[in-house]
Amino acid sequence: MAYFEWADDMVIDGGAIDADHRHLVDLVNQLHSATTEGRGMEVVETILKELLAYTAEHLQREEQRMAELQFPDLERHRLTHAKFIADLQALRARFEAGSIAVAAQLSAVLRDWLSLHIRRGDKELLRFVQRRQRA
Fold this sequence. Notes:
- Keywords: Iron, Metal-binding.
- Belongs to the hemerythrin family.
- Residues 16-127 form the Hemerythrin-like domain.
- Helices cover 79% and strands 0% of the residues.
- The chain is mainly alpha-helical.
- The chain has a single domain, classed as Four Helix Bundle (Hemerythrin (Met), subunit A) (Up-down Bundle), CATH 1.20.120.
- Helix 2 runs parallel beside helix 4 (102-134) and helix 3 (74-96) packs antiparallel against helix 4 (102-134).
- The chain is elongated.
- The mean pLDDT is 88.
């Protein structure tokens, strides 16, 4: 069983946004597996770099899609994204400073953020699109 399982209630668009989210879930699971196998420090740098880059790309794509759809809560959503990127950068800085607990912390932070952000924040986009389609 994976550390973080994709679930039907996480589906947002059945397309690019969901594909991005699934990739991020896969990265979290890779990191967690390596950590539980005692290889966290071996892989955390590589996975952390990919997570930072991919997360930034994903959030940019998500915000662009929200702008195209004229999503009314885009600015608040951007702020949550910026805070998350700052949190990831802080974890990277702690890793670069030699913290050995970063791998496990990163797994938990990513799992929790992805789960909550997708199920709450990103679901707002889905509900917005559904309301527009009904109107």
